[in-house]
Amino acid sequence: MHKPKQKLSLLVNMVAPARLALFRGLAEHFELQIVHGGTESNRDFWQEVESALHNATIRRAWGWQLPIISKKNGRTVDRRYIHIVPGYFSRLVRFHPHAIITGEMGFRTLIALAYGTVARKPVWIWWGGTLQTERKRGISRTILRAAISRWARHWISYGQTSTEYLESIGVKRDLILQIQNSVDEHVFAADIRPRFKIQPRPVLLYVGQFILRKGIELFLNEAAALKKEGLEFSVVLVGNGPDKRALEQLSTSLALKSVVFLPAQKPLDMPSVYRSADILVFPTLEDVWGLVANEAMLSGLQVLCSKNAGCAPELFSSSHIFDPEDPEEFKYKLRQAITGQLAKPDCSRLKSTAQILADIIRAIESSLAPVAPATGISQERACGQ
Hints:
Helices cover 32% and strands 20% of the residues. By secondary structure, it is an alpha/beta fold.
């Protein structure tokens, strides 16, 4: 007679494609219910993601999404959404989980902690912010996070930079399960045909939103400077966002040739996009991690990563990291990459999905009674060649 699975509720704002491999793995070990607050307007290309999860129950909770647009000199620096979703509580009451995982440190987590306290169930907060990304958070968030840091007993951090932030607000290190932010390595390491062929080579690739925070303008400026030095290469930028037209105009004004702008691609199409390029350039001014770096590494690309990405110190050596706001350093690192002086990054720095999944399962089960070990999880991982 099979022992029934313990119930796990996962509270998220959206069901993100990068999480599918982890969600499937959790659903093999738990009766998993994923509760989300809806799809944000700038993520409409994620709409088909839920249909790919066959072994989990997905529910939308009622509530609201409030857009928060940060501007500087009339330009959009960032677009975020605050999810106010009271419906999470009723979903928890109906499902009656044995444990809860919740992202962020806001309304959703307060609901999870309130339910967990009343029902005496463990609540795990999955956190990704860093000292860099959280440096400008206001007094209200500071007070709220201080309260949550004293209330919660179980934490999951994206990596070292996220752990450092949690410790800075008073979370004890022994309460934190430090993993990595990850993607499904089997998807990106697969032998897939390139999506496009473009000359001249090498092809420098940017993937992400077209907003000021991503540092694309700085990238184009340095690329134009290197073109004037006589270097030959192409630039491909993939994404959507309010700055797209302005960036296209900037490219024209810089007389930057061999530049291609592509709209955001469906998640399943991205492996072929990476296979079409040679070097990923990630010039962000602020990112909690930067999953495009994982995807590019697994696809076999060289990577230049901004020091402002949460993944930078964990995934890359100093030779692959640069300051996008230092024009000379940025140009120097780009020149090295274009002229073939930059080695491919070390894929052994990436933790596999199986490793991460095993760590999460063990941690959750250790917070339940009786303790049950996580078994039968493959540790295999492939990297792009």
